[in-house]
């Protein structure tokens, strides 16, 4: 095997890592908003991702059956609907359950785990236990070949672009909008935020719902690289928590950096060893780094 072939393989594995990075980052962003900013351990976060993935599938099925002329344009619209449905589900869960459990992390963990199991059963009952895949538009199919022997999937490029846009919007909202100002004030000092007139309960609910909505977008992105089943989201929940914890619980920049590192290490090592061994190596590296730096890669300097 020539050096150019090895380089092409490493580049393609690296780009496969970028696709995984995109899904992990979108999952991690939503979790960083909920866990990092609010301190809620949301074990049902993966199910909000699955809501987004099933939204794409259902939208694809309906468009293919009743409006096939819209197949080329349905996907961006379906992503917006996936965000809205996951946002609405998150709003409902926060109102019905989470608002009663703030400052009780173990209770939120157990309660959201129960929500996770209940949502999975709803998926099995109303959609089915089998994994499904949407029909993607033609413009998402195929690959781009910048050089001979190097093929980069177009759907991977789209997911990367989508992740960049969503990450930029989240950063912009958190640091330049009134909602972001209220979130940062609430995180910094909840009592003082209430004293100056910020409705912290409403801020919590909106923040939780936005985090769930971003998970829905992660599910939409996931449909371009894998099939969806009732437990698809739960397969990513541990990785998403790793991303947030490794990067620094309240740092969005740390979330980006840790998602990139974890995805690239896992993808490249999978070429040289089995998937399970690559996972073990990745987890071992994270454990060693967290032993040296338990606060994560980036620390949010906030007065508590």
Describe the structure.
44% of the residues are buried. The mean pLDDT is 85. The chain has one domain (12-233). Helix 5 (154-176) crosses helix 6 and helix 5 packs antiparallel against helix 8. The protein has a two-stranded antiparallel ribbon. It has eleven helices and two strands, in the order ααααββααααααα. The chain is globular, with a radius of gyration of 20 Å. 72% of the residues lie in helices and 3% in strands. The N and C termini lie far apart (57 Å). A hairpin with a 2-residue loop joins strand 1 (143-147) and strand 2. By secondary structure, the protein is an all-alpha fold.
Describe, in short, the structure shown.
It contains 11 helices and 2 strands, in the order ααααββααααααα.
Tag the structure with descriptive keywords.
304 residues, mainly alpha
Order of helices and strands: HHHHEEHHHHHHH
The gyration radius over C-alpha positions equals 20 Å
Q: Strand-residue fraction?
A: under 5%
Strands, count = 2
**Integer average pLDDT:** 85
Note the main sheet: 2 strands, antiparallel
Shape summary: globular
Across the major sheet, the strand order is 1-2
How many structural units, i.e. domains? 1
**Could you estimate the helical fraction of the residues in percent?**
over 70%
Terminal-residue CA separation: 57 Å
Low-confidence stretches: none
């Amino acid at each position: 095997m020539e050096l150019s072939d090895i380089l092409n393989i490493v580049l393609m594995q690296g780009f496969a890592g970028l696709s995984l990075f995109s899904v992990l980052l979108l999952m991690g962003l939503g979790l960083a908003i909920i866990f990092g900013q609010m301190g809620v351990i949301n074990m049902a976060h993966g199910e909000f991702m699955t809501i987004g993935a099933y939204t794409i599938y259902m939208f694809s099925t309906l468009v293919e059956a009743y409006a096939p002329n819209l197949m080329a344009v349905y996907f961006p619209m379906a992503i917006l609907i996936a965000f809205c449905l996951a946002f609405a589900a998150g709003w409902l869960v926060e109102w019905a359950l989470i608002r009663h459990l703030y400052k009780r992390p173990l209770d939120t963990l157990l309660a959201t785990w129960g929500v996770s199991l209940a949502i999975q059963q709803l998926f099995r009952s109303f959609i089915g236990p089998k994994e499904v895949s949407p029909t993607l538009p033609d413009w998402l199919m195929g690959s781009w070949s910048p050089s001979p022997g190097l093929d980069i999937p177009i759907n991977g490029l789209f997911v990367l672009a989508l992740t960049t846009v969503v990450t930029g919007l989240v950063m912009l909202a958190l640091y330049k909008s009134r909602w972001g100002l209220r979130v940062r004030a609430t995180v910094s000092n909840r009592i003082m935020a209430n004293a100056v007139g910020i409705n912290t309960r409403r801020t919590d609910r909106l923040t939780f719902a936005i985090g769930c909505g971003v998970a829905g977008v992660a599910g939409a992105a996931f449909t371009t690289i894998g099939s969806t089943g009732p437990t698809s989201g739960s397969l990513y929940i541990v990785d998403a928590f790793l991303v947030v914890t490794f990067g620094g619980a309240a740092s969005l920049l740390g979330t980006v950096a840790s998602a990139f590192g974890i995805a690239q290490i896992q993808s490249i090592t999978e070429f040289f060893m089995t998937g399970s061994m690559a996972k073990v190596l990745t987890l071992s590296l994270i454990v060693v780094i967290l032993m040296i730096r338990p606060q994560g890669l980036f620390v949010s300097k906030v007065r508590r």
